[in-house]
Amino acid sequence: MVLRGYLPTSEETLQTLAALRLQSLNSDFSTHAPFPRLEELFPPRVLHARLPAPRRRTPPKCRGARLRAGLLAGGLWGQALAKQRAERDQRLRGRLREEGASTMAAILEKWKLLQGMGRPEAMAAYVALVREWPGFGSTLFDVDLRASPVVAAPQRLWLGIGAKAVSLYKPGEPEPLDSFCYGRISSFGASDSSTFRLSVEDRDLLFETSQVDEIARLLNTYLASAGARRLPQPQEPPSSLPAPDPAVPPQGLCPTAGPWHHRPPVGSFRS
Known about the structure:
By secondary structure, the chain is an alpha+beta fold. Among the domains are: about 1-50 and about 85-130, Acyl-CoA Binding Protein; about 140-230, PH-domain like, CATH 2.30.29. Helix content is about 35%, strand content about 20%. It contains six helices and nine strands; from the N terminus they run αααααβββββββαββ. It has helices spanning about 10-25, 45-50, 65-75, 75-110, 120-130, 210-225, and strands at about 140-145, 155-160, 165-170, 180, 185-190, 195-200, 205-210, 255, 260. A hairpin with a 2-residue loop joins strand 5 and strand 6 (about 195-200). Helix 1 (about 10-25) packs across helix 4. The relative contact order is 0.10. Residues about 230-270 have low confidence and may be disordered.
């Protein structure tokens, strides 16, 4: 999760984590030690975030202008645009190499300071740093939240699913925009293959995501551990959840006439 960029912390801390990982893998700094690639130590998305965002071209509004643009794109003008894109991509790759080299140099300096630290100590220090995030233990998913009481417009967020609550984060922010304990969740499920719905008391939250099944499975797991009863869900798509074992009494959430998972009244949950 750290290497995928799902730890909202400073770059300084991420560099320290990378140095601790090197100390755990290779012991004290040495130029002869086997050296992992940077993406095995430091989240690549942090480096990419430093690069300037590509400018979006505004398409011509009138039909004639679009036709002329299409004709130009097929001739010399198109070749010139392709050359510009290639040059821009080359500049971005060069900038990315520079940022990577700078980050690696900072990690090496931090690694040198850890001389004498044993592997168990390095691992303990790594975990202690990660645990400083209040959401430690949550699994984070990239989602697009449609306009709702939480946000005024569609927005890219992290959906954090933990043992005690579901939380919404702005990517990279350590504190959640909002958090819902499981006792407040009245229903959840997939309306289609890319839309996940979460009903919290009197409001519905709709998320666009490619990980609908993974989110549903994790929520089912935590709700089951919270003491909810789970019955078979015949209207779920076959790939959504594993088939229940007929020898095992059903547990967890109860289905209704629709694709949503519903829980019993709030009073049936144990704290």
